[in-house]
Specification:
Strand order of the largest sheet: 1-4-2-3
Strand content: 15-25%
Number of strands: 4
Length: 133
């Protein structure tokens, strides 16, 4: 998906199989349990399915790091199905990239997956990302 600045990030679901070439240089794994080992740099955000990140400050730091990684490498965001948690994280990246928070979910649904950000609390999380509410 192209972020508002033009930087690229790939979203995917683990259930859809392994990463396709070109392989990422950095992956952010949004899962309730530790992700499988991968041959590229990876970070895990503990995030149960249909919920929110367990440690929100850690998640925000991971999103900022992932956005920084998009400047020089291929970044992927991964959850189980590739829609809820991945879509929410992509919307958070869009906010950090300059998109108004109230437009980020619609942006991700238009540019990534029309079913992204599956729950009302995930949508609220994006809206309040920078306020901490």
């Amino acid at each position: 998906m192209e972020l508002p600045s033009g930087r690229l990030v790939r979203g995917r679901g683990l259930r859809h199989g392994p990463a396709a070439a070109p392989f990422p240089t950095y992956g952010l794994y949004l899962l309730g349990k530790e992700p499988p080992d991968v041959p590229w740099e990876a970070h895990w955000v503990k995030w149960p399915d249909f919920r929110l990140p367990v440690d929100r400050p850690q998640a925000l730091a991971a999103f900022r790091d992932a956005l920084e990684q998009t400047a020089t490498g291929r970044v992927e965001m991964v959850c189980g199905g590739g829609r809820g948690r991945t879509g929410t994280a992509l919307a958070c990246l869009a906010v950090l990239d300059g998109m108004p928070a109230d437009r980020a979910v619609d942006y991700v649904r238009q540019h990534y997956d029309k079913h992204a950000v599956e729950t009302p609390w995930q949508r609220r999380y994006v809206l309040n990302l920078l306020t901490g509410a």
